[in-house]
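Listing 4. Sequential folding, example run.
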Amino acid sequence: MSDSGHILVAEDDTTDAYFFQRAFNRAGIPVTLHFVHDGQEVIDYLRGEGQFADRAAHPLPQLALLDLNMPRLDGFDMLEWVRKQPAFNNLQLVIFSSSDETKDINRAYGLGANWYLVKPHSMEELTALVGRFKKHWLEGADLGGRKAA
């Protein structure tokens, strides 16, 4: 991703969204984060419909971070929907969830997630996780596995 990269973040918890934005800022990652609150808004954003129709203000992302537990449509629904859309074959999908359950992780990968991140419990841990995210996605480092906790 370049300085003009865009990440779509589906997060219904405003506190988590705030800390996530703060961690990205602290890590100095040169991307713009676009937040939506639920799975239906992910679809609307990707389709460029409704409030997301202006592509200058809401450009297509290179990567989407999806919370598993969202209203209307959850992260699993989003993985399934996006992977059925040929126009989004190159969209990288990352689950960012508080669940560290093996069944959730396996299901996410089975539905096409590129990576699964478990939400940390402190700002310091979140900043470190975002730093690892930066190394993997922006700098191409091999983190030696598909799950990051």
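-- end of first protein; second protein begins --
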Amino acid sequence: MTSESGPTAGDYIGHHLTHLQNKSPASVLDFSVFNLDTIFWSVSLGVLGCFLMWQVARRATSGIPSRFQAAVELLVEMVDSQAKSIVNNAQSRKFVTPLALTVFVWIFMMNAMDLLPVDLIPLIWELIFQAQGHDPHHAYMRVVPTADLSGAMGLSLCVLIISLYYSIKIKGLGGWVHELFTAPFGDHFLLYPFNFAMQMVEFVAKTVSHGMRLFGNMYAGELIFLLIALMGGAFSLSFSGISLGLAHVVAGTVWAIFHILIITLQAFVFMMLTLVYLGQAHDHH
């Protein structure tokens, strides 16, 4: 509900946390609803990340590298060393290592969208929406794909599918099914139901925690940026208004600098867990 003087803080935050969707959901479990902004920014940033890496590879030189090339080479070496220490199959690493590098770069870029001014892209979208004769109050646009639960869980679900693929590829379908019923408690027919239940719990727990860890941190960061933006919106030529304006600048700067560590750490953690889960898929019980 809005006041006569304009939208309230709750309206502002609610608007910024609402996705651009293809239709209004009929229920909470309506799987025909897609968050179009998450899809758009995920794909766009993925293409941009691939383009940047391709440009570095195309312009790579054996002489004195540029700063960007040196940074990418350090990143590639770091990912390669982590993959070698976790995944012991050299053939699998030909796919797993580039996958881990892609995961890190892609998630880092999606997380970094949180560093843009919270009103910048939504405002541009509202102006486009208004120019087309639509109500700008219904111009929703969220720009951080990893702050969307469906986006983060989609990434973790893809990791689960790839892990299952390698489990079957390395152990064979029969070996994988046998492992489902014989690990972790042992190969006895009385233990088969408990083994299978534990395996299902493990798959679900790893997938949910993998996605929720990323989503929770990025959603919290997005919310903090919105609260800081509200302080700037309260600026006025009064003592309290000027104080809030200064607090907005200081808090925004400090949180943005600290958030650079968060977005990098979350990308690294998601990449490392991806390597760990794929490494576990190669282990025999």
